């Protein structure tokens, strides 16, 4: 007894509730035989008729789901929107937060820039974990019979029409975070760089002589830029006045940096003792020129980008 | 030109509820699954077997149909019949179907005028 019908019945009954299995089996078998008989009565070959009937009944899992009145979806419409909102909310900050913490801890351990890789991996793992457990929870809630008392939607929940069209919150946060990290890096590199004396003492990357004026000045400019970003977000859109301030701040940072790089005053001369490549004057000049050009390119690009945004806004 | 897919979806939506009504009417005279399928289809209610068989069980669970095994014929068959409860629900459904028809007719005439 291993006909197609037997196999079809077995496949269907596998996933219907046990207490009704026998009855469904007898009824379904009789129905299939009725259908086959009807076709062979019309002169059709019995095997072909059986195939045709079972094909018509379709995927046994689907049929079983209909018998068991089971839902064929992970999360139904009742909970889908809540699930989606919660997922977006959690993914919007937790992975980044955990990743940042990991990076900070690793940097504090003295791993330097190597800390970025592990931090990204951890952030991605956290994101996958959040998505999995949240979805599992909602799938279980969706399958439990009781309807959880979801708060009804009211008009009061309507969000304000976004006023910050030109300046997004994400961009602002990213900019401020970058600025704060840069501000923090300047004193950090003085105590912790990847270059050490033979006795293990740290060699700062930037010339310590710059602390008398230029480095504090650059930190003030960066801080002012961070404040500017926040003010810009509050205003919500670019204007030519903001563009002017932005250009001034960019120049206030880029010009001294370029000038220091070109006059070979940026890097710590002591680095040459440990890195023979830097001991050579020509190499130092090349590096200085590269830093100067890089800074200039970023400056020009930033100004073009900002002026485009401003023109689009004021047009 | 309306696409065939769109048409099929709308027809399906329109027909969905009528299968229950048709089955409850047809089963005022007791019958088994496949015979009912053929009767419905002869009267212009083509239903898929994999929809009708589970539906009959569901209606039975809801108390709208009663069932009885008949072992006298060549093979044992489960005969369904519309219960008293099913009959009273059927009357409500038929009233509603008539109301829908009346409303549609009224709307068509109202628009035509």
TrEMBL record, chain B:
Domain (Transcription regulator PadR N-terminal): residue spans on this chain: 27-91
Source species, domain of life: Bacteria
Record protein name field: Transcription regulator PadR N-terminal domain-containing protein
Organism, as annotated: Micromonospora noduli
Taxonomic classification: Bacteria, Bacillati, Actinomycetota, Actinomycetes, Micromonosporales
């Amino acid at each position: 007894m291993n006909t197609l019908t037997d196999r079809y019945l077995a496949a269907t009954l596998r996933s219907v509730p046990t207490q009704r299995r026998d009855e469904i089996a007898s009824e379904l078998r009789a129905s299939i035989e009725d259908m086959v008989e009807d076709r062979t009565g019309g002169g059709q070959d019995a095997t072909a008729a059986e195939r045709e009937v079972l094909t018509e009944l379709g995927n046994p899992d689907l049929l079983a789901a209909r018998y068991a009145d089971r839902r064929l979806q992970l999360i139904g419409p009742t909970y889908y929107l809540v699930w989606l909102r919660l997922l977006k909310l959690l993914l919007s900050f937790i992975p980044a937060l955990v990743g940042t913490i990991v990076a900070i801890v690793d940097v504090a351990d003295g791993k330097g820039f190597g800390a970025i890789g592990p931090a990204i991996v951890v952030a991605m793992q956290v994101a996958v974990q959040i998505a999995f457990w949240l979805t599992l929870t909602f799938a279980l809630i969706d399958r439990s019979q009781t309807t959880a008392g979801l708060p009804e939607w009211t008009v009061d929940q309507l969000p304000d029409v976004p006023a910050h069209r030109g300046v997004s919150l994400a961009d602002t946060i990213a900019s401020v975070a970058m600025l704060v990290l840069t501000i923090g890096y300047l004193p950090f590199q003085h105590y912790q760089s990847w270059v050490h004396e033979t006795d293990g003492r740290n060699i700062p990357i930037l010339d310590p002589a710059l602390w008398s004026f230029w480095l504090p000045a650059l930190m003030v400019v960066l801080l002012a830029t961070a404040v500017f970003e926040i003010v810009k977000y509050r205003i919500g859109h670019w204007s030519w006045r903001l563009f002017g301030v932005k250009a001034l701040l960019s120049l206030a940072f880029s010009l001294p940096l370029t000038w220091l790089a070109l006059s070979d005053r940026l890097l710590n001369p002591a680095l040459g003792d440990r890195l023979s490549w830097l001991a050579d004057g020509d190499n130092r000049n090349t590096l200085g020129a590269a830093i100067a050009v890089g800074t200039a390119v970023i400056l020009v690009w930033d100004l073009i980008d900002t002026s485009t945004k401003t023109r689009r806004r004021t047009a | 030109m309306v696409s065939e897919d769109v048409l099929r979806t709308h027809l399906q939506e329109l027909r969905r509820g009528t299968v229950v009504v048709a089955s409850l009417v047809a089963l005022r005279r007791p019958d088994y699954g496949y015979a009912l399928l053929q009767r419905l289809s002869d009267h212009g209610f083509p239903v898929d077997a994999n929809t009708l068989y589970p539906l009959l069980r569901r209606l039975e669970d809801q108390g709208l149909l009663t069932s009885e095994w008949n072992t006298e014929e060549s093979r044992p068959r489960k005969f369904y019949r519309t219960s008293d409860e099913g009959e009273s629900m059927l009357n409500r459904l038929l009233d509603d179907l008539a109301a829908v028809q009346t409303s549609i007719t009224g709307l068509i005439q109202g628009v035509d005028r």
